[in-house]
Amino acid sequence: MNAARADGHMSGRSSRQAFAIGVAAAVVMAAVLAVVRYTTGTPSLPELFGEAIIGLLPPPVFSALIDALQRAAKPLLYAGVGAGMLLVGGLLGQGFAFGAPTWGRAVRLAAVLWAVFGLVLLPLMGGGLFGGVGLRTGVVALAIQQALAFGSFTAALVLLLRATDSTQAAPVLSQRRRAAVMTLTSGLALVALGGAAWRALLGSSSPSAAGVSTLAPAAPLDAGRAAGSTAQDRMDASQAAPSPVAASASPVAGPARGLPPLDAPPV
User: Of 140-154, 188-202, 221-235, where does mean pLDDT reach its minimum?
Assistant: First the structure.
């Protein structure tokens, strides 16, 4: 087995197969994030990461992108973040496959990812701890959500690697595959129930109201300023009229972050 691993094969699978398993585990993580997002209204990791990327863009570049892409800007941003998530998941799957798929290794990898993204990467990108700067959502809720995300990713890695180990007998593999399907589906159902309970007990905002950023109402542009306004000014003006739900919430101190919603008027 060690010789097989040395020449690029891990437990009867190739490096390409290990990459595909990592991508599949990232898809499981995305499903968990989507369930948590739409049951609790807590902004998901791809949204937070996308917001952090926006904050790093120079204002002229950001304005030019908004002018060029219009309503496609937000979908393209999240599509790019999602593609990056799948790529990183595949690479992590390749690395994880070079060792035994044990639960101890899974817990350690999940803890490292949680710390790197929430305590190092997002703060360095200006999003604060776990990307919570300027959001109504508390840091604790974001930390729990990201722990669930990375935990589901590493758990899926273990289950999928064990279920595709061709060195095992066919009956063992069949049993492991059934166990993987049952564990992943029941785990997703438990996350959904937990998210619904969280929302019922704590009165979390609805997903539509708990967007990634909460902007304080801005004053309308006067006629003179509107004539020479930049793309950023025009985007802010399109966001100046808050929705009835957002208007009832208290403004949050902090930088104005985020792209206009998908149904925003054209810039």
Answer: 221-235
Output the average pLDDT for the chain: 77
3-state secondary structure (DSSP) of residue 45: helix
Cα 4 from Cα 161, distance rounded (Å): 16
Compute the distance between CA of residue 258 and CA of residue 17 in angstroms, rounded to an integer: 37
44 in Cβ contact with 34 (< 8 Å)? yes
Note the pTM of the prediction, 2 decimals.
Answer: 0.72
pLDDT of residue 208: 39
Residue of 106, 102, 98 whose CA lies nearest to 18: 98
CA distance 137 to 222: 33
- Tokens 């899974």 locate to 106
Written as six digits, the tokens of 31 are 């499903």
- More confident: 198 or 37: 37
- Non-local (6+) Cβ contacts of 107 within 8 A are 154
> How many Å is the Cα radius of gyration of the chain?
22
Q: Would you state the torsion angle of the CA atoms of residues 69, 207, 135, 259, taken in this order, to the nearest 10 degrees?
A: 10
